[in-house]
Specification:
By secondary structure, this protein is of the alpha+beta class. It folds into two domains: 165 residues, no CATH class; 152 residues. It has 18 helices and ten strands. The strands form four sheets. The chain has a four-stranded mixed beta sheet. α8 runs antiparallel to α10, α8 runs antiparallel to α14 and α9 packs antiparallel against α10. The protein is elongated. The two termini are 48 Å apart.
């Protein structure tokens, strides 16, 4: 749907989807399928699921839609339900079309005045959805590798999305099961994130020292990104995908302290200035770690990198302390420093395909 002045006033997609369910779909189901138990939710892809949509979002992958979960025993009614929705739903809700067209790689709201409509209600089972979306059935126990291969961006939408109706009692238990990593696995992922920081600590200065200012800026930017991801982990929040990574970070409790420092790093004109501000950020991250009390307190500080005139936080100290705090034999048996899929893969075509993610299990062998 093209952006133009004739569009109705913007309302958040989550609000629109809930109105679509309550005003249009629920009455229809009550009339035509009065004995049907179901669950209705928006916990999959979309800026609106995360609460970050804006008027610009309305041009594609946005509109009145949700997932309708049926019990396995009622799945045979899927076609009948779909038929009733296609032939009896209103053409608009809150001024927005309920009909979609599907050009390549998009779904776009499109006005229509005739049935059947191509609606945005995806009908499936909870088990089928979760297996497709995160690769596991949260009604069953998750293993350590199961957790590690779920992209955090998918856990983020499950945590932040809306549940409109849950007569099947499947959604809230699933969200609780996927809310956060088991404690020792969290420590393992934290250690892997500190390890990423440790591996690049001296390179902002080293590249700048040989006149490679662009390289110095790139390394500093990577340090910022790694500290931002560490901040999500420290606050037990699942990070979204890159488009909303900075927006979500700005809402973390620690962002007020870190964002001005990150801006100073980014705006530095010399590598020495960059290093000075990096040291400030590293010290904040050390303080945040100690505030968790998941390891014995670690001395705050910045040191010289061997005999060179470069300053580093020696993040390996935090890696070692976190790994020493792990008591689970299954977690201790995982390869050191590999971490979760988000920590070693940033290819969109991998992170957007749960089968590709699951195929990486051999990394933990």
């Amino acid at each position: 749907m093209a952006l133009d002045p004739t569009q109705p006033p913007f309302i958040p997609g989550a609000v629109l989807c809930e109105r679509f369910f309550r005003e249009a779909v629920r009455p229809l189901l009550a009339d035509r399928f009065p004995r049907l138990d179901y669950s209705a939710t928006r916990i999959d892809f979309g800026s609106d699921v995360l609460g970050f949509d804006t008027p610009q979002s309305r041009d594609h992958h946005w509109g009145p839609r949700f997932m309708l979960f049926l019990a396995e025993a009622d799945l045979h009614q899927k076609d009948a339900i779909d038929h009733q929705l296609a032939h009896r739903l209103p053409f608009e809700i809150a001024g927005y079309p309920t009909h979609f067209t599907f050009p390549i790689d998009a779904d776009v709201m499109t006005p229509t005045t005739s049935h059947p409509i191509k609606h945005g209600v995806a009908i499936t089972t909870a088990r089928a959805f979760f297996l497709d979306y995160v690769g596991v059935d949260p009604a069953q126990p998750l293993g350590e590798i199961d957790w590690l291969l779920i992209p955090s961006q998918r856990l983020a939408t499950i945590a932040s999305g809306q549940v409109f109706h849950d007569a099947l009692n499947v959604l809230e238990p699933a969200r609780r099961a996927l809310s956060w990593y088991p404690h020792d696995l969290w420590l393992y992922i934290l250690a892997a994130q500190w390890q990423r920081i440790d591996q690049y600590e001296p390179f902002t200065a080293r590249t700048g020292d040989v006149g490679d200012d662009l390289g110095s800026r790139l390394v500093a930017a990577r340090q910022i990104a790694d500290m931002m991801r560490l901040a999500f982990l420290l606050e037990r929040r699942h990070a979204p995908y890159i488009k909303w990574f900075g927006t979500a970070f700005s809402r973390l409790a620690c962002a007020a302290h870190l964002m001005p420092v990150f801006e100073d790093i980014s705006n530095s004109r010399t590598w020495k200035q960059r290093e000075e501000h990096l040291c400030r950020a590293w010290l904040i991250m050390q303080e945040l770690h100690n505030a968790l009390k998941v390891t014995p307190p670690i001395e705050l500080g910045i040191s010289q990198f061997y005999g060179r005139p470069y300053r580093v936080p020696r993040s390996g100290r935090f890696v070692e302390a976190l790994r020493a705090a792990i008591t689970s034999s299954a977690v201790r048996a995982l390869p050191a420093h590999v971490g979760s899929v988000d920590q070693f893969a940033d290819n969109t075509d991998v992170l957007d395909n749960i089968r590709h993610c699951r195929a990486l299990a051999s990394l933990y062998a």
